[in-house]
Amino acid sequence: MKFGGTSVSSKKRWDNVAEIVSDRLAEGFKPIVVCSALSGISDEIEKMLAKIPDHSYKENLERFEKRHLSLAEEMGLDAEAWLKEYFTQVAQLTRGAALVGEVTPRLHARVMAYGELLAPALGAAYLNKLGIAARWQDVREVLIVKEEENVFASQSYLSANCYYEPDDNTLEILSGNISEVVLTQGFIARNQKGETVLLGRGGSDTSAAYLSAMLHAERCEIWTDVPGIYSANPLLVPKARLIKHLNYEEAQEISAMGAKVLHPDCIEPLWDKSIPLHIRCTKRPKMTGTIISEDISRGLAQVKAIVSKEKMTLISLDSQAMWKQSGFVAKVFGCFAKHGISVDLVSTSETNISVTLDNLEGPFHDQTIESLMTELAPFGRVKKKDSCASISLVGSSIRKILHKLGDTFSVFEEAGMHMVTQAANDLNMSFVVNENQVGRLVGQLHQILFEHHRNDAVFGTTWSEVFDKNLTAEFPDDIIWWRERQEELLALAAGRTPLYVYNEETLLESVEVLLKLDSVERIFYSMKANPYPDILRLFEKAGLGFECVSPGEIDHLLKTIPGLDPQRIIFTPNFAPRSEYEYGFEQGVRITLDNLFPLEKWPDVFRGRKIMVRIDPGKGRGHHDFVKTAGSHSKFGVAYHQYERLKTLAKENDVHIVGLHAHSGSGILTPDNWRDVASFLASLAEDLPEVETLNLGGGLGVVEKPGQIALDMEKVDQNLQGVRDAFPHLKLWLEPGRFLVAQAGVLLARVTQLKQKQNYSYVGVDTGMNSLIRPALYGSYHHIINLSATEGRKKLRVNVVGPICESGDVLGNDRRIASPKSGDVLLIATVGAYGHAMSSNYNMRPPAQETLLPARK
Length: 857
Hints:
It contains 29 helices and 34 strands. Strands 3-4-2-1-7-10-11-9 form an 8-stranded mixed sheet. Strands 19, 28, 29, 30, 31, 32, 33 and 34 form an 8-stranded mixed sheet that branches. An 8-stranded parallel beta barrel has the order 20-21-22-23-24-25-26-27. By secondary structure, the chain is α/β, with parallel strands linked by helices. The chain folds into 4 domains: 2-224, Acetylglutamate kinase-like (Carbamate kinase, 3-Layer(aba) Sandwich), CATH 3.40.1160; 303-465, 2-Layer Sandwich (VC0802-like), CATH 3.30.2130; 469-479 and 743-853, Lyase, Ornithine Decarboxylase, Chain A, domain 1 (Beta Barrel), CATH 2.40.37.10; 505-740, TIM Barrel, CATH 3.20.20. The protein is globular, with a radius of gyration of 29 Å. A hairpin with a 3-residue loop joins strand 13 (343-348) and strand 14.
């Protein structure tokens, strides 16, 4: 039984582990439990090791120690005494590395191992406290690395393979008392010299598979935070379906082509010994999940999953010399082998060889690839393209169903495809595209290939269907405020629908969260998210500033809040005419420039003025391609390579750049984003002595659907405080929009008609994409409930649609809601941002009106 990092990172999760282990004991099994490091710890150690050469690693070391001590305290364990020994060893190793200024692969492996050693140690102590006999065992006593030729030193320590033949020594060490649970480590092993080595990131799955094979296990269970392998990544496609059964070959192909649930290396040992693999969800231990075993679908030609792999590099070699030249391809691939580079996808013609390199786990860096290209140069013209991704249709006997896949190819019409390959094993067809196209393409492909599926022998329930069943257990309280105010909302709906309702309490709570950020000097509300007057007045009273993108927004703001200090307004037009910049200066607001054209063509408008400049950080982030606002495919910001030209123009025209701005996207839930943006801008500010402010944009994501983890705002603050400490003369600003209003808004719509078409149930409501265009535009997910439903109504799976004459007028597909009747009120959640603000009178249907639900006294 292997438990991943998220499954062992809190007392609550360990209580789940204890329950699962107890169930196995009751069934007569002897469980061997393999634990990963606590969630995020391996990343923390990687960052710590990266900082050793400049001696700035100690902050990461402190976080490493604090995380384990906090968990021990939460578990009620007096563990500081024996944890201290491990902490001392890590401190000694890192201090020694800092003295010599180098982290060798051998040291890297030794330090990384401590994350794995501590989790099962805490777990064993906690299980014993609960009355479950448990023993900690060092897995390095039984997992021994294979000695392999032509392996780079770094690879031998950081990405090793182990023997897994049945072994009496392993059986003796791990058997012991039949009622005793053994807890051991994943990810680590030892070589023939007795040194610690790693099995590569994600190697805990492989550890469990090795031990299963060595012990003739009845089965191997991989416990993680998802119920199994899905037909697509549920974070991209909420309607993705659980795959109930796969054979070993299919599972290996799906994991190798990009699915993150399972490490591809774990399949071979189990396949070799015919040991079934069960993927289970720690949060839902009773759910069956995905079972991987012997071939259960031989002869069935079918696509079972759409998987994607990002951060790939494409290398292309053109040469007329390869035409009919014996051994040419072998010599070319010899260059890759010489540099220790593994090739992923391959496509050849008479005059071209194109390959992709998987950068996710590769031990090579840019310098290695440049050396490779230099060595390939004598063979022909070499080209490199970064930021690529592969999208693969994975299943069985793909060649037999090519004639059925015709519709899928239309999806790639505007995708900028670089390569198409059909696997020799007939298990996948892969397309290499630009990385920023993945979300859109996977969603469209899934709709074509799996829209017609219902539960059958292969496919189970959708991701959204599973999580919707227990909504209140999956959403934070601030998402479901409408549960407590159901009667008030129904009373508002009785007067008129469709209707947007904004909850004042939730708005104020969002403001409070942002104002608690000690590292941020000022918050500016990006009012394009929602310009409703009552919201603007509420935010002004709370002390926020405002970010506007048009003269119309400025006029609306000043009309709503007469006498507002213009210095509380940032104006950031994009591809705007000269007159808009002149208008902004006349109003006395702060101007942000995001292109060099105005300085080059209209320098007199800016001469002697103070401005901020928006810089493109080069890499966009966000929940959809259309909201990623950085990178060469985005129209926003001054490109980094134009920075020198910007400084020259500013100096020539007496323009004072007092602030730098960057915005990478929307809906971001990774707390490192704003630190990275701040560090990027701070490095540029060193060449501009008048810069006093860094505007980090917005994009702070909110939880919109079950299963998402909320943005860690304390972590955001800690990260930004580190930048403030390094650059104390610079002030940090944020300009969030969605974060402040999204969760506060719901859309109330009344059921008009019901329709059944074969297995599809449609529920029509009195508004659609004219009020809420985000599902049609972004494929965004909004939770939907039947607000009128009484307790006990049977739940149905339905498609919720509007009255607009467009096939894309869908507010939600495959939603489980209480059985609807004509006249019921449906609630569409998390629509406070870019809902009414993006509405229209399309089809000459007026959009939903708006109202504010006052805070309770």
